[in-house]
Write a structure and sequence with these properties.
Blueprint: H1 4-20, H2 29-46, H3 53-75, H4 79-87, H5 93-105, H6 108-146
Helix pairs in contact: 1-2, 2-3, 2-4, 3-4, 3-6, 5-6
Length: 153
């Protein structure tokens, strides 16, 4: 129950994001992309034993990116739709807020500490997305070469 409710809240928040950015419920895209956000948050919470939220974010975004690529292939839609919505619960919004608050208040020590930590989470998210999308593109090129297509579309 400690994991189920936050994942449900993440799912509902992702639905709100989808509605505000006009993602149509065509082919269940609204529900499936929101499920990616809940899945990412579930992985983040399950990795809680690591005690390092940068690594937790990294593992969660890898799962979300793989999920996005799979859903993109199954439903013939851009992976970006699933990826951006699945990324929303993992974005370090609180860290960004507190970093700016410390900067405005002139607390430079806390500003630097929270800023570096927030950039660490953001970097982990971007590296996770890069690894998965790069791996998928590499597999696509290898598949085309094996079919004798010369790597061309």
């Amino acid at each position: 129950m400690n994991i189920l409710l936050p994942c449900l809240y993440s799912f509902i928040g992702c639905i709100g994001y989808c509605l505000s950015f006009n993602i149509r419920p065509r082919k269940q895209m609204l529900l499936l992309s929101s499920a990616g956000g809940a899945l990412g948050w579930c992985v983040y919470l399950l990795c809680g034993g690591i005690k390092n939220d940068i690594i937790q974010s990294f593992f969660a975004i890898i799962v979300v990116a793989v999920y996005s690529e799979i859903m993109a292939r199954l439903y013939k839609a851009p992976a970006t739709v699933y990826l951006v919505v699945g990324l929303i619960p993992l974005v370090p919004g609180g860290g960004i807020y507190y970093t700016m608050e410390y900067c405005i208040n002139g607390d430079m020590m806390n500003f630097m500490n929270t800023g570096i930590h927030t950039f660490g989470i953001a970097g982990a998210l971007s590296i996770g997305i890069l690894l998965v999308s790069g791996g998928v593109r590499l597999l696509n090129v290898v598949g085309r070469l094996r079919r004798g297509n010369g790597g061309q579309d």
